[in-house]
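2024-03-11 09:14:02 DEBUG pipeline.ingest accepted 1 chain
2024-03-11 09:14:02 DEBUG pipeline.ingest length=172
2024-03-11 09:14:03 DEBUG pipeline.predict start
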Amino acid sequence: MALIKSVRGFTPVIGKDTYLADNAVIIGDVVIGCGCSIWFGTVLRGDVNSIRIGNGVNIQDGSVLHTLYEKSVIEIGNDVSIGHNVTIHGANICDSVLIGMGAVILDHAVVGEGAIIAAGSVVLSHTQVEPGCIYAGVPAKFVKKVEPAQAQEINRKIARNYHLYASWYENS
């Protein structure tokens, strides 16, 4: 069973039909929407500030989400896929975003709707990733614009797939 821990008077709130892997850790001021999946070894540390996660979000194995005390929060929109071993620290991730494996998103960055962050990229503090664009590299830079409807559909499909994968664990 996932570790769900209250800290400083804040208790995590978990939405309906959300899968939490056995060793996921959810701490403090965290609100997770409906139909999400939080996978193995993932840590959502809302001990120093808030983490807000929309509906249909998947946060894959080994990812860590944290914030700066009294300075940054995490806001994640709907239908977002956060790849394996991603670090998000105090950033805003809009709807239908795909964040590739091993990426790092730093404080006060904003990743626009339907954007794709390539695996291994580092999005520096205060970076504004344009909607429907692919960013890659260290530091992450604009690569190309993609058709917004196409990017959103691909990103939503990945998010829906993870909802299916989570269903496989319901009776395990």
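2024-03-11 09:14:41 DEBUG pipeline.report The first helix runs from residue 148 to 167.
2024-03-11 09:14:41 DEBUG pipeline.predict end
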